[in-house]
Design goal:
The protein is of the alpha+beta class. Strand 4 and strand 5 form a beta hairpin. It is built from seven helices and nine strands.
Length: 172
């Protein structure tokens, strides 16, 4: 796992909690790395937060981050640069309409006194299966969602005890 970026996420999550009471969702490749412990070549930090901070409270949110040294690089994507790392914030509530994942169904973790949300392996699979069909991600971001789907499916297969498999595959 990318420990340096994970530590940066925890610092950011602490800032979000102390400034706004936000319990953020660690998303994207770094979240998947945190869940599995495997290195996935993370290049940024994706964080989901309540929609209100990207809409009605955006100016307040932006001012707090810029006061801490974050530089807004893409207002449309809510992306900031800090210490050479890109932090992108997106709408937590969009998970329900995009992937049918309700916020209350997402697990919460705590590390070093910092609370954050983290999807399960099954929830990540759902997100990447939806993402592979999303024209924006395919055409603009060029993400390797299909590779992530295979990675998650392998992890799920590895997690199933051999006695539960039929001919090497999971029981249905």
């Amino acid at each position: 796992m990318e420990k340096a970026k994970y530590s940066l996420f925890l610092e950011n999550a602490l800032l979000l909690q102390s400034s706004f009471g936000i319990v953020p969702l660690l998303y994207g490749s770094l979240g998947l790395e945190c869940l599995t412990g495997d290195s996935l070549g993370v290049d940024d930090i994706d964080i989901l937060i309540p929609r209100v901070f990207l809409t009605d409270r955006w100016e307040e949110f932006r001012k707090v981050l810029t006061a801490q040294g974050f530089i807004l690089t893409d207002a449309h994507e809510h992306t900031f640069l800090y210490g050479g790392t890109a932090y992108s914030y997106a709408d937590l509530e969009d998970l329900e309409s995009f992937a049918r994942i309700r916020t209350e169904d997402i697990g919460e973790r705590e590390e070093a006194g910092v609370r954050f949300l983290l999807l399960s392996l099954e929830q990540y699979l759902t997100v990447y299966q939806k993402s592979v069909k999303d024209g924006y991600r395919v055409n603009v971001r060029k993400k390797k969602d299909a590779e992530k789907i295979r990675f998650i499916e392998e992890k799920q297969t590895d997690a199933v005890p051999k006695s539960s498999r039929i001919n090497g595959s999971r029981k249905r």
